[in-house]
Amino acid sequence: MLLSNFWNSLLLRLAVVSFQPCSAAPPLSPTSTVPECSCYRAAGNEKALFLHHQFFDFRPISNETFASSLTVPPTIDDSQDGGIEPLTSPFFDKGLFGDYFTPASWSKNVTDSAPVFMVNSHQNVYLTRDSPDAPVHLTLRTNRLTSFQSASDLQTTETAYMHASIRVRARVAGSPGACAGMFTYLTDEQESDIEILTRDDHSTIRATNQPGLDPQGKVIPEASTPVTILQAGSTATGSWTDWNEYQLNWLPGQSEWLINGVSKLNKTYGVPTQPSNFQIKMWSDGSSWPGNMTVGGLATLDIEWIDMVYNVSSEAPGATCRKTCTVDDIARNPIPQTASGTRPTAQIEMFSVLVLGAFGTAFFSY
Predict the structure, then answer these.
(1) Could you please report the per-residue DSSP string of 46-108?
(2) Which end of the chain is more exposed for a tag (fewer CB within 10 A), N or C?
(3) What DSSP letter does each residue of 212-223 carry, written as one string?
């Protein structure tokens, strides 16, 4: 037993530094081969080149020894206004997913325009699934208490992204008065957002570059634009309560938003110009943007996977590209294949970090 525990512990601690060659995903055609990609192009702009690729897929996490951590944690109550709750799973520890994304626990005081005290809690960031046989997904939650709003914030440990194409397969549900945000961020003036407001019509998201207000506090019309969701491969209107693929292309002098692979909007106003991190939030502060959630209300943001191609700081990939690959065209089947749909990007880049031990198997591709 002691020896077994030792090896389980060793596998768990070394998992994220155990680089192994990726298993090749099925090729696009019988004659195609798996390329060794040193640079990437993203859907929506074939001219932009990126040096790095990461793919975080939560669906394969299914080992029964990890099942206890897939239970939805209790909602925050009125006594928990300090944001001091522990992580909901070892999965979010440093050495695993926590090396790349960190749940936050900061709070935001009341202001004239934001009348509800907001507290981020680790307890609102967790892994779960719809049924015992369903794929796992990541959830961020917010709920309204009598005296404050409990919220959630997940931030990358990398803070020097300098242009990126970021795709997230997500859905949103719950009470009006919340904002689900997926965005690059440095300051309130250096920020580019995909935002879903639960007070909006279910077919509408917001594509926003900051700042949204001028120095006199007036709304800048170019900052935020409503965008209509269309179902994948269809002209029919979709809903943010269903699974959709949301994509932000942050390029020099241009931001582009795509939904389910279809370009919906290009914007030159407010395009970030400085290195930033990437954040995912589910929040409300009672301000006019998300709205003021009714006491007892709750909303969630569910995520199946996060796919990123990006450059860091002032990298210029053009001079270093040996083999350039369009992300959509490398491979279309995730590992493992699931009933929830295929991932439209590669599982066959340079290396994969294979997370083992007590956590089953999850893939983080580079």
Answers:
(1) EEEEESEEEEEE-TT---GGGGGGGSPPPPP-TT--S--PPPSSGGGSTTTGGGTEEE---EE
(2) N
(3) -B-TTS-B-TTT
- List, in sequence order, every beta strand (DSSP E) within 262-339: 262-267, 277-283, 298-312, 324-326
CA distance 265 to 192: 13
User: Residue 117: beta bridge partners?
Assistant: none
Residue with tokens 């900052």: 223
DSSP string over 5-26: HHHHHHHHHHGGG-EEPPPPPP
Q: What is the pLDDT of residues 168-221, one digit of tens each?
A: 999 999 999 999 999 999 999 999 999 999 999 999 999 999 999 888 888 999
Residue 102 is predicted with a pLDDT of: 95
Please give the model's pTM, rounded to 2 decimal places.
Answer: 0.83
Q: 87-91, 149-153, 283-287, 297-301 — which is least confidently predicted?
A: 87-91
Q: Is the dihedral of CA 82, 85, 87, 93 positive or negative?
A: positive
Report yes or no: 98 and 92 within 8 Å, Cβ to Cβ. Answer: yes
Cα 64 to chain centroid, rounded:
25
Cβ atoms 201, 278 nearer than 8 A? no
Q: Which pLDDT score is estimated for 187?
A: 97
At 248, the amino acid letter reads L
Give residues with Cβ within 8 angstroms of 134, minimum separation 6. Answer: 340
Instruction: Please check whether residue 76 is in contact with residue 124, taking contact to mean a CB–CB distance below 8 angstroms.
Output: yes
What is the predicted pLDDT for the residue at 47?
78
Tell me, what's the pLDDT at 17?
Answer: 26
Collapsed DSSP state (helix, strand, coil) of residue 4: helix
- Residue 319, classified by CB atoms within 10 Å of its CB into exposed (0-12), middle (13-18) or buried (19+), is exposed
Q: Any idea how long the chain is?
A: 366
CB atoms within 10 A of CB 298: 17
**Tell me, what amino acid is at 260?**
N
Burial of 229 per CB tally in 10 Å (0-12, 13-18, 19+): buried
Examine the pLDDT at 104 and tell me if it is beyond 90: yes
* pLDDT of 346: 29
By C-alpha distance, which of 104, 289, 298, 303 is closest to 179?
289
